[in-house]
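Please check this:
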Amino acid sequence: MIGVAAIGAIVGVLLVGLVVLVRKPADTRSVLRWSALAITVLVAAALTPFTVDDSGAAASYLLGVPVVAALLPVLAQRAGRLTVVADLVAALIIAGWGLLLGLGIGGAFLPAVILLIASAVGSSAPRPSTTT
């Protein structure tokens, strides 16, 4: 089940990347943040039965930490403050959590880190000049 969730997350990240490259949305960073949150929530939902059977009540924080971390950049965007920092902190939390869990269920959350890093890096891109 973990492999299926990880492969699904990788496919999701690739699809988001393809959509961003082809469609070139006006707010690419927002698309990346929301996509990272959606992929993280879907992975957590897919892993819930397996994790509850294996870990019982501990499944709430085993799966909850990555979901809350992926929610941080979306909330920072809504507040309009520190979005790059929130992207990087969320990426570090999810990556660290994946490594802490020995790349077991945590490994399925790692593809979302790519989207969060891309969102942080994309924010430092130079803006086109409005003056002629």
